[in-house]
Amino acid sequence: MPITIRRATVNDIICMQNANLHNLPENYMLKYYMYHILSWPEASFVAINTDCSNEISNIEDKDEESLEIEDVENSKMVKLDPTYVGPGEKLVGYVLTKMNDDPDQQNEPPNGHITSLSVMRTYRRMGIAEKLMRQALFALREVYKAEYVSLHVRESNRAALHLYKDTLEFEVLSVEKSYYQDGEDAYSMKKVLDLDELHPKNFAHRGKDKENVLEDDLESDLLEDILKEGIESIVV
Ligand SMILES: CC(C)(COP(=O)(O)OP(=O)(O)OC[C@H]1O[C@@H](n2cnc3c(N)ncnc32)[C@H](O)[C@@H]1OP(=O)(O)O)[C@@H](O)C(=O)NCCC(=O)NCCS
């Protein structure tokens, strides 16, 4: 299962919104995705499964009832499905980020914000969210000079808390009471961004055994995860 992690573009936003609607109760209008990607085009990332070609049917198999469009060049019918970013390519995760542009906080040093992150259910526990986050944190620091990044997470969200707190080493700043519409509290979290730590060649293996980590651990990490979890190749 080849997974590619690449920068998000405006062509991805329908699929990003679709993934968001599947995975989270905090949803946004398309123009909000557009605002992120047009304002900070290098800061948001998507994970794509590039091997979904078996899900494209031949033109002869066309079912009148199904939602398909014709890929004229390849004489095939392509499923009209918001999980597909292109023929045979499914969006399986995204991270949407921005720089803090709140006019009331102009005196703060440049800082970024993680607006939304999710991975489709059948692709979880493969390291995809960690890789999306590390790419985004690096870009926010390197391209937009963010000195730190902040986010909110539900108190009950064990998976995300583990990812942010233990894997990515965010610190908990405070508990914001009834932050979410349903009344749940949020942890407000922050991570100071250090370019050296974030550089892909210095990725430590998920925050563990840092002293024993080889200097360039990114590729071996990816391969380890891929072999362990069944992904055959992953491109960052
Ligand atoms: C949270 C979420 C993005 C994690 O995605 P993922 O691709 O499965 O995460 P990863 O595989 O990169 O895992 C990162 C770490 O979190 C841990 N983790 C992932 N899911 C977990 C779970 N359900 N329970 C406990 N730990 C979990 C992994 O074991 C890994 O830890 P490690 O570094 O110690 O090995 C995913 O579960 C999701 O999309 N959830 C719904 C949307 C959501 O909650 N978004 C975050 C909103 S703030």
From TrEMBL:
Entry's Gene Ontology cellular component terms: NatA complex
Pfam families in UniProt: Acetyltransf_1
Q: Domain of life of the organism in this record?
A: Eukaryota
Q: Which UniProt keywords apply?
A: Acyltransferase, Transferase
Q: Where is the N-acetyltransferase domain?
A: 43-194
A Gene Ontology MF term for this entry? Answer: protein N-terminal-serine acetyltransferase activity
Q: Which family does it belong to?
A: Belongs to the acetyltransferase family. ARD1 subfamily.
Protein known as: N-acetyltransferase domain-containing protein
Query: What is the organism of origin for this protein?
Result: Vanderwaltozyma polyspora (strain ATCC 22028 / DSM 70294 / BCRC 21397 / CBS 2163 / NBRC 10782 / NRRL Y-8283 / UCD 57-17) (Kluyveromyces polysporus)
Lineage of the species this protein comes from: Eukaryota, Fungi, Dikarya, Ascomycota, Saccharomycotina
